[in-house]
Task: structure prediction
Amino acid sequence: MSSQNSSAMPAITGPVLITGGAGYIGSHTTRLLRQLKVPTVVLDNLSAGHQRFVQGPFEKADLGDCAALDRIFSTHKPKAVVHFAAKTYVGESVTEPSKYYLENVHFTWNLLEAMRAHGCRDIVFSSSCATYGNPQRIPIDEAHPQLPISPYGRTKLHMEHMLEDFSRAYGLRFAALRYFNAAGASQSGELGEIHAPETHLIPLVLFAALGLRQKISVFGNDYDTPDGTCIRDYVHVEDLARAHVQALGKLQDGIARLACNLGTGTGFSVLEVIDACQRVSGRPVHVEIAPRREGDPPRLISGGSAALDLLGWAPQRARLDDIVGDAWRFHLAEAQSAKKSS
Ligand SMILES: NC(=O)c1ccc[n+]([C@@H]2O[C@H](COP(=O)([O-])OP(=O)(O)OC[C@H]3O[C@@H](n4cnc5c(N)ncnc54)[C@H](O)[C@@H]3O)[C@@H](O)[C@H]2O)c1
Result:
């Protein structure tokens, strides 16, 4: 277990059902739970996840399949759920909102009904800073109005509201964790970020460094920021995993409802990220300046103290070069093994 994971972690009663446990953040969280000897079961349809990232018992199933949910809850009798599975592309949510309302909102309802039917009452949920929409102030604290500007963000907010209503009516206990930009990879090198298509900045720049793409496009360099490019808050995926375990601990201690931001409180610009990728990889990246994209706020930086106050969580691996360095080692190894097998 890496040193960052060995700090005092709560004792969790399992099994814990992890939806989306074959995906990026879900696989890191499953790994941490298993390192802590908590029994787990991963539920994933592998639509975006990876079989080789799955650890421990696995149920290949879709959250739209209520009979499968019933069987999985009957078989594994989970004591808690960590719910990562979702459609995750903001742009696609604009052109195909129906898919997002079905898979994010309706399928979450399926999951909550299965929990209710089987007497499972604790759930940690992947929410997003996208629920805040255009920031009215920076940093964005938890009291910031939630006015999402995309269907993706709106589905995440609907899910938060559903959890709140189920909690008040049926005694569900939930933690809604509003991540900023998940980034990095496991320090051990075995897990990392593979999305298809990839839309996240750090892997895209690293692909350019690896020669897997020709260039990286910077969408706008005339924003009101020190170097003119957009600033985002990158939070290490292993720090995110730890927050889920801490949140599970709080729910099992009896806390009924909590919502908090998960970010570092520090922002890095697109150009700073590109610089870090070049520095860490030692390879040049061809950069092209492109027009601004609609709906990209200049700054998204996490604020508020709920994660610290309610979970006792603070990021431990927040240096940009550490985050990029972990991602680089993962993608370099992936590229090398792809080359070997081709
Ligand atoms: N990555 C980020 O920066 C970020 C930021 C904010 C919020 N989030 C949220 O965190 C969660 C995890 O994100 P990620 O980056 O790990 O995504 P991911 O795509 O890597 O993982 C999602 C997993 O869910 C599975 N899945 C999707 N639909 C399913 C269904 N209907 N039934 C069963 N399995 C299904 C996929 O196969 C995949 O393994 C998502 O809910 C996402 O919206 C992510």
Q: What stands out?
A: The pocket of nicotinamide-adenine-dinucleotide is lined by residues 19-20, 22-26, 44-49, 62-64, 84-86, 88, 103, 107, 126, 128, 179, 181-182, 195 (CB under 6 Å). Residues 40 and 186 are 19 Å apart (CA to CA). The longest strand covers residues 122-128. Residues 320-341 form the longest helix (22 residues).
